């Protein structure tokens, strides 16, 4: 059955996220910005902590929460509005700021890995945009899996629109929000019963994804921001900080 999605929100994904979180940014402030080799992190006075994946190596660097002319980093509201910026680092910092704001006010969420909470049936056509270490497990469950990941040279991008159109399940990396490919992906989805955004960079703001094909957000909530921040400053990736976080799910309202 074809599912039709409302077009009443004439904004892109980054703009919807900014709108959902901007009022919170006015009453909060940045206490730390950490830029590592693989991830960036933002810590807020409220206790919110968020991370964002960096595409390409930037070198380990610790920055203060003061304006920076080169990267366009200013106060919290300014940083949030950088989400979707054409400059990759500025957009990543905007993502981390958004994730931190969402985490500060998200409340309790169901815990669990995406594989435990996402029903996959034998023969399901699953499209994964981005690389995750769940490919083998999905195939073992009988999924007809297609993976597209530019960084690993996987998949013919010319065939991606057709694959998305016919997919039963779609799994999209949260990095697609940072690099502005998310809207091109979502507009190709026609019949999928589930479309999920996955990864530590996921911004847990379900309301921002209402009226889109996205049904659930799978991200993380950090138990130990200090240890996670240090792991990122040391140049570590997901494996270096995931021990300090719990995997959670946020359902998108229908």
Mean pLDDT: 90
C-alpha termini separation? 17 Å
Beta content comes to 15-25%
Write out the strand line-up for the largest beta sheet, numbering strands in chain order. 6-5-7-8-9-10
Task: Please state the overall shape, judged from the principal axes of the Cα atoms.
Answer: globular
The main sheet comes to: 6 strands, mixed
Identify low-pLDDT runs.
Answer: 1-7, 57-73
Helical segment count:
10
Helical percentage: 25-40%
What brief labels describe this structure?
single chain, 254 residues, alpha/beta, six-stranded mixed sheet, four-stranded antiparallel sheet, 10 helices, 10 strands, disordered N terminus
What does this entry show, briefly?
The chain has 254 residues and is of the alpha/beta class. 29% of the residues lie in helices and 21% in strands.
What's the topology here?
Elements: H1 13-25, E1 30-35, E2 39-44, E3 49-53, E4 61-63, H2 76-80, H3 88-104, H4 114-117, E5 125-129, H5 135-140, E6 144-148, H6 160-166, E7 169-173, H7 175-178, H8 182-186, E8 194-198, E9 216-222, H9 225-233, H10 238-241, E10 245-251
Parallel strand pairs: 5-6, 5-7, 7-8, 8-9
Antiparallel strand pairs: 1-2, 1-4, 2-3, 9-10
């Amino acid at each position: 059955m074809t599912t039709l999605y409302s077009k009443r929100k004439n904004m892109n994904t980054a703009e919807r996220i900014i709108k959902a979180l901007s009022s919170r940014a006015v009453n909060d402030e940045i206490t730390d910005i950490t830029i590592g080799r693989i991830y960036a992190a933002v810590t807020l006075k409220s206790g919110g902590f968020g991370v964002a994946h960096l595409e390409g190596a930037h070198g380990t660097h610790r920055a203060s929460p003061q304006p920076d002319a080169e990267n366009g980093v200013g106060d919290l509201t300014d940083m949030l509005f950088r989400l979707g910026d054409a400059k990759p680092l500025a957009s990543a910092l905007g993502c981390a700021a958004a994730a931190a704001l969402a985490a500060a006010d998200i409340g309790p969420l169901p815990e669990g890995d995406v594989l435990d909470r996402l029903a996959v049936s034998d023969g399901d056509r699953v499209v994964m945009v981005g690389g995750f270490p769940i490919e083998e497990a999905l195939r073992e469950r009988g999924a007809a899996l297609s993976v597209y990941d530019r960084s690993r040279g996987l998949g013919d991008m010319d065939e991606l629109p057709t694959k998305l159109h016919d997919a039963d399940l779609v799994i999209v990396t949260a990095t697609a929000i940072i690099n502005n490919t998310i809207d091109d992906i979502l507009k190709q989805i026609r019949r999928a019963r589930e479309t999920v955004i996955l990864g530590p960079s996921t911004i847990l703001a379900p309301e921002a994804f209402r009226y889109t094909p996205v049904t659930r957000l799978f991200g993380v909530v950090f138990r130990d921001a200090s240890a996670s921040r240090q792991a990122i400053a040391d140049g570590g990736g997901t494996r270096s900080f995931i021990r300090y976080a719990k995997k959670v799910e946020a359902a998108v309202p229908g």
